[in-house]
Structure formats: C-alpha cells, structure tokens
Amino acid sequence: MTTVQSAPLPPKSAGAYAKDHSPRSNGRRTAMLIVVLLSPAIALYALFVFAPLVQAARFSLFKWNGLGPLEDFVGLENYANVWADPFFHTALLNNLAVIAVSLAIQLPFALWIATLLTGSFRGRAILRVAFFLPYILAEVVAAVLWSFMLSPNGLINEALRSVGLDTVAHPWLADPNTVMYAILWVVTWKYFGFYTILFMTALQNVPQEHLEAARIDGASRAQVFWYVTLPAIGPTVRISAFLAIIGSLQLFDLVWVMTEGGPVGASSTMVTYMVSKGLRTYQFGFASATAVTVAMMSFLFAVVYQRWVLARDNQVDVKEGKRTHVAH
Amino acid sequence: MRNKGVVGLGAALAALGLAACSSSTPEPSGPASGPAGEPVTIEWWHIQTQEPTRGVWQELADEFEATHENVTIEITVQNDPEFKTGIDARAQAGDMPDLFQTWGGGVLAQQVDAGLVQDLSDSTSSWIGNIAPGAVAGLQIDGAQYGIPYDSGLVGVWYNKALFADAGITDTPTTWDEFMADVNALRAAGITPMAVGAGDKWPAMFYWAEGALATGGKDPFISAAADGNFTTDAFISSGERINELVAANAFQEGFLGTAYAEAGGASSLVANGQAAMELMGSWAPGTQASVAENGTGLGDDLGWFPYPMDTSSGESVGFGGINGFAVGKDAPPETVEFLEFLLTPESQSKIGAAGLLLPVANGAEDSIENPLQRQIRDALVELDYLQVFLDQAYPPAVGAAINDNVQAIFAGTLTPEQAAQAVTDVAQAQ
C-alpha cells in the first residue's frame, strides 16, 4: 500500500514537456494515446461490470422465472415489492449494523493493535502474521469453522461449560436474537487483520520530527496521538472506512455459509436476501431488482464519499479548485 | 519519439486483447446425436453423492458403455442445492444435460413449459408398465410423461427402540395423542424426543405437510394447487401441532440452526443415539450410517412407524417423494436406451441393495435388505394418493414460501394462521 507523498508538484513550464511540439498537435496525440491505452481496460470493464448491470436493470423490469423469454413487463413493481418487504428491511438493518460495528469497533481495534505493533520488540513479525491470518483464510473455510465452533456442542459452548459458565452457553446461530451478534463477531474477527496492516504501514510514515516536536512542546501521549498521529494517517483512515462500508454492503459468503440468512431471516443481509427470496424462488426479475438496488446504494455512497470525504486527499482538491499539498 | 513507441505498444496490446477475446469464445455445443456407430456422449447429472449408490450409478454407466461402444457417458455428481443452482444455469442457457435428476412437480412443469424437456410418452411406452404406477403418474405433466422414476419413498418416523424402552414406551403410537404422550415420556426420561434439521427448512416442512395430510387427507393439497389457498383448517391445525411439539420441548437444543445431513446435524443426533426420533424420508438409514460415529448407525435398534394419521376418512394417503430422471430436449436417442437400461429389474436391484433408495421397478423389491425399507415400499404401493414434497409439488416460489414460513412457525415468530396466509399470498400472486 503506497503512502501519500507530500512532495510539491513540478512547476508548469520547466521545459520538460514544452519541447518542440505545438500545443494543439501535442494535445491530440496525447488524447489518442489515452484512448488506445484505455481501450482494453474499458472493454473489459464494459463487458464484465457495465453490461451485467445494464442487463440486471433490464431483467428487473420484468416478472421472469429464468426460463424462456422475457415477456411479462411489470415496470417498477419489483422495486416496490422489494422496498415493501419487511424481510428486506431486516436485511438492510443488518447491513447497517455491520457497517456500524466495522466503523465503531473493528477499525479502532485494528488501529490500536497497529499502534502496539509499530514499536519493535521480539516476536513482532510472528504477531503480525498471527493477526493477519484470519484475513488470509478463505471466507467459506472461516464460515464453516465458526459454524462448528458456535454450534450447541461446539468449542465455544464447551469452553464456557468447562469453566462453569453453563448458563451463558447458548445455541448462538440458532436463536434469532443472538445470531446477528455471532455474525458480527465473525466478521470483525475475519477482517480486522487487513486494516491492522493498512494502519501499520500508515503509522510508519508519520514524520518522526512532528512527533518529537510535539513531545518537546509538552504534549501528553494522548494529545500526540490525537493531534499529530491521527491526522497524519488520515488518508488511510478515510480509505479504510470506505472499504469497510463497501464491504459491509456486499457481505454474503460468511453469512450464507453460516446461516443462509436464517433462522427466519434474522441474520440476512441484502445479498443473502436476494439469493434466498429471488434466485431460490425462480423470481429473477425480483432478484435483479434487489441486485440493482444494492449496486445503486454502493455506487451512490462511493460517489458521495469520494466527493466529500476523500477529496481532501487528492492532489487536486476539486472543492477548492486549486492544487494543494496533501493535508497533514 | 517516446510517444510513438508507447502508442505502438498500446495498439499492439489492444490488438492482442481483442484476439484473445475472440479466440476464447467457447465452441458451440450442438446436439451430440448421430447415427448408431458415430461417437455419442451422454451428459448425466445426478445427485447421489453418497456411496454406495454413487458407485452403483458409475457401475451401470460402465456396463452400458461396454455394450455400446460408441457411447461415452459423462457423469456430474452434485449435492441437492448445488444441483439446483447448476441446473438453473443450464436451463437459462437453454442447454440442459442429456439426463438429469428431477422430482416432478412445479419445477419440472416450468422446465417443460420452457421447452427444455423431451416428451417420453412414446419412447418409453414399451417398458414403463413395469414401474410402480403411482410413481410414474407423479412425473407426468398434463398427461404426458416427462420423467421416469427410479426411486420413491415415504416419509415416516424413524425411532430408536432402545431409547423408547428406556422411557418405558412399549408400543409405537397410532394416534396423535399417543404420539404426544410418547414425546412427553421421552422428555421426562431425560431423552431428546425428536431431532429436526429446521436450519435447512425442508425437514421442518415435513411436519406441516404430514399434519395437514393426517387431519385433512388429500383435498387441502389438491385444492391449494388450484386456487393457492393454504388457509384451510387442515394446514392451520397442522401449524398448531407444531406449536404443541415446540411447547413440549420435543426438539433438540438449537433446532432452528441445525442442518440435516451434515456432521452435527439432526441425522447424526439420531444416528448417535442422542435423539429418539426423526420425521424423515426412506433414505434416512443410509444418511444416518454416513454420519454415525460408529460408521453404521443404530442397526437393530432402528425402527419405523408411519406418522399417526386420522384413519376415520378411509383414505390411504402418504407423504413422500419421487426421484426420477428427465431427458433434455436435444439429447441423443441413446439416452432413452440408457434410461431403459437403468430401469431394468437387474439395475434396480443393485440400487435397492445399496440401501439408500427404494427401487420402483417390479421384480427389484427383493433386493431391499433393510426390512424397514421393505416395509415402507410395501406400504407405498398400497397408497391411494402420494403427496409429493411441498417444495417440489408447487411452483418454486410457493415451495420456498412454505419452507420459510413453516420455519417461522417453529421459531414462534408467526402464528399458524399468519404463516398460512403468507404462503397463500405468494401462491395467489403466481
């Protein structure tokens, strides 16, 4: 992961670019170059990202069981049904819960671990690997492991019983009241390592002079952290939050393998909802409407977030309309 | 110039990309038919992932290949949910496998409507008479034969005789009151009365179907197929029976999240003597054996009795399923020959001997070694009406709604009336 440099941009007419071409033909050449270099990527993007989305949007306007031709045009009825369905509301709330836990618990926890791991001490390399291990595990494998551990006679409950906490032992994944907590736990366990690594790299690039200057000025450790370290790793924090939110909106594998969104839809996310209510029931128009809804949500969030939060990390701050240095 | 080189490189890359794209389009797979003598491939999708049945299918395929030198049979084995996903993808592409698993009912009807399935009425008429008529009828759509059954079974209560003796139960129950009394006796003796894989949803659906069949006979099911109304008394009272069982603490801990056939699932609880009963299909002994700690299951301790029916109406009805094979529209004629071979009494005897499935061809019933399964098969052929699994009998959306809402009855989040109404809403929106 590259860190953001704080070097100034090169001055405009130092001679590197303005050699012996007139500005107009230089511009056209550049444009042609851009088109040629971009065309493979655009072709792939169009084929694998844009086209399916357009196709899904088309399917979502029909009532279709997946077999035979598209005949039954129903307009926006599928979307109305999705938004009216209380099961979808539950799924949406569950997604929001995952986002909240990611931002409020997972990221701060990862940051804390990262600060502990930036000091040098024996065994640091091993600990780094250990914390990163859950992330490397395939999602399905992790889900199967945890569904065994959380089963009524699984490792967790047996451990609780062996220390005398029999009353706490519980069928975590079978009780609609506790299943979401179990899912949140597994999600946190699975992904915090990734953010730890990101933060570790960012912390290593905090300028030492600033830290020393702050300490010399008499700042306490908390103040140093809050006023110097945290702003310095700001871009990484903002990107991590972005990744966490987008990932939470798309959560599927872990939930599906552990509970299939059940029992009675208590642990469903929007994507598991789409599979169980749309694909399993052969209602592909309905499923497509759900898919497009999730895609639009993610897209909207990404655009808004990029514009308002990540803009300050760009070399050209669109809001201010001028070139800026990266914020310290 | 720097730019010229880069432009050239970019153009070369673009050309390479386009060439790669076009050469990677798959060869169109047309029908693999040809006159006898030309090489023919039969693509066969089945769902018997467990031995020994899996081995039996392979053996039969090998036998057929040996006697028909131009035929190659490609087998793809998947478990139930994977198969359903896979077959959907093929159906959407309009390219069904030549021979594939079917359960009849709403899904097969949809596939037939989409023109994907071969009509077998004529090509099988010479030999279909040897197969149990009830099962054959179950795979007809609008009077035409679209599938051939290879197994049919009844759902019933599999129980542990030793645990029943421990609880002081001497006779198997024949009425619902006796059944509830037995459940209470088992719980009082500290034994988990029943194991249910409500996490998979369909085992829970069995309770709803059996209860409705027991109190209402076949009429509520037939009329629901016509008008989508599931709020008839039989279904409501069946939901109330489920509530009664849950209130009596009849099931294992965490039943809402338990799967059926996995390690630690409901089947393994029965197989390892941790639960006394399960309401399950005729494949149960085989599945129990595959998940039992001792490798074989309960052995002589395993017993079977039918779900207590209200016999006052005189109807002889049962709940179960039919497993069959359907033939894809573009399949080569050798496929139907192979199907005929699979349904001969000899082939069916091998299936029966494997112990998981019940053969439907006459002359194969003596191959069934397990006396309980023989008991089931003999009961099956006597029935007036076999109600097929609800998530197969009705259109998939209705089947899924039934599974979801019955799970809700088990969870106590919906009353029997609300659940029935929810299913009706989906059924009537079809």
Task: Report on the architecture of this protein.
- The complex is a heterodimer of chains A (328) and B (430).
- Chain A is mainly alpha-helical.
- In chain A, the strands form 2 sheets. Chain A has a two-stranded antiparallel ribbon. In chain A, strands 3-4 form a two-stranded antiparallel sheet.
- In chain A, helix 2 (77-84) crosses helix 13 (284-308), helix 5 runs parallel beside helix 11 (253-259) and helix 8 (208-216) runs antiparallel to helix 9 (221-232).
- Helices cover 66% and strands 2% of the residues of chain A.
- The two termini of chain A are 18 Å apart.
- Chain A has a single domain (46-323), classed as Orthogonal Bundle (MetI-like fold), CATH 1.10.3720.10.
- Chain A is flat, with a radius of gyration of 25 Å.
- Chain B is an alpha/beta fold.
- Chain B folds into 2 domains: 40-152 and 321-388, D-Maltodextrin-Binding Protein, domain 2 (3-Layer(aba) Sandwich); 156-319 and 389-428, D-Maltodextrin-Binding Protein, domain 2, CATH 3.40.190.10.
- In chain B, 47% of the residues lie in helices and 14% in strands.
- Chain B has helices at residues 2-23, 53-67, 80-93, 105-113, 133-138, 161-166, 176-188, 202-216, 219-227, 233-247, 266-271, 284-291, 334-342, 345-354, 371-380, 390-393, 396-411, 416-428, and strands spanning 40-46, 71-77, 99-102, 140-141, 144-145, 148-154, 156-160, 192-194, 275-280, 302-305, 317-327, 385-388.
- In chain B, the strands form 3 sheets. In chain B, strands 1, 2, 3, 6, 11 and 12 form a 6-stranded mixed β-sheet that branches. A 4-stranded mixed β-sheet of chain B has the order 8-9-7-10.
- Residues 23-35 of chain B have low confidence and may be disordered.
